[in-house]
Amino acid sequence: MPNRAERPAAERQQLVELPGDLVTQGLAAARTAIETEAAAVSALADRLDDVFLEVLTAIAACEGHLVVTGLGKSGLVGRKIAATLASTGTPATFIHAGDALHGDSGAVTERDLVLALSASGETAEVCAFARMLGDRRIPVIAMTGREDSTLAQLATYTLDTMVPREADPLNLAPTASTTAALVMGDALACALVVLREFTHHDFARFHPSGALGRKLLGEQV
After folding, report:
1. Residue 5 has what pLDDT?
2. CATH of the domain at 59
3. Choosing a second label site near 44 at 20 to 30 A (CA), which of 16, 72, 160, 177?
4. Is residue 147 part of a domain?
5. What are the tens digits of pLDDT across the range 139-183?
């Protein structure tokens, strides 16, 4: 099958033609999405309060791993948060909330701390996992957009990632809410880099391969 560049010009033109009004509306929706998500991220700065400091202290003092959990889009964001933390000096791993209910919860020990993501705070599997952890007296940090949610009530700490609306035109797809959660995770990681006095040398030891690793180790890229 010919690739796009090999298709006749007339065929390529036909593929990209769209009604002008839809193109205009689409571009407007794209701009609105960016503005909505930017506003959601900006609002997080005012939420770096005493609870955020308590969470930082708890993570820094954790003798085991920070176990991140979530489901769906929140789970995908949770994987990235765990990866960022692990690469910047905080031992972290991800457990899918659904898998946790089918045996993987056994990987969590009494030395660990759990960060649970759910925009609504009502995700059944995440809440069930949090209940299991509570029964074992393992602290849970909720990252949710609803401080009155079931997950928040089950948690030891709650990080507020509420957004006024999602960024998509239907106000349905996880967009602004997942971006807010991702940025709050990055905020935790960046603060912990400072608290742990994590250095360029430490970062290089965790990244020996690839262009970044070679650059940090002083090799020619």
Report:
1. 56
2. 3.40.50.10490
3. 72
4. yes
5. 999 999 999 999 999 999 999 999 999 999 999 999 999 999 999
In a domain, 91, yes or no: yes
The residues with which 113 forms a beta bridge, in sequence order, are 66
pLDDT surpasses 80 at 82? yes
Alpha-carbon distance values, 172 to 70, 176, 200 (Å): 18, 10, 41
- Cβ atoms 191, 182 nearer than 8 A: no
Count of structural domains within the chain: 1
Q: Is the dihedral of CA 184, 188, 191, 197 positive or negative?
A: negative
Phi, psi dihedrals of residue 7, rounded to the nearest 5°: -70, 150
13 domain-assigned? no
What ranges make up the beta strands (E) of 71-189?
92-96, 113-117, 140-144, 157-160
pLDDT grade, residue 134 (50/70/90)?
Answer: very high
Q: Is residue 19 part of a domain?
A: no
Write down the pLDDT at residue 4. 57
Strand order, beta sheet including 92-96: 92-96, 66-70, 113-117, 140-144, 157-160
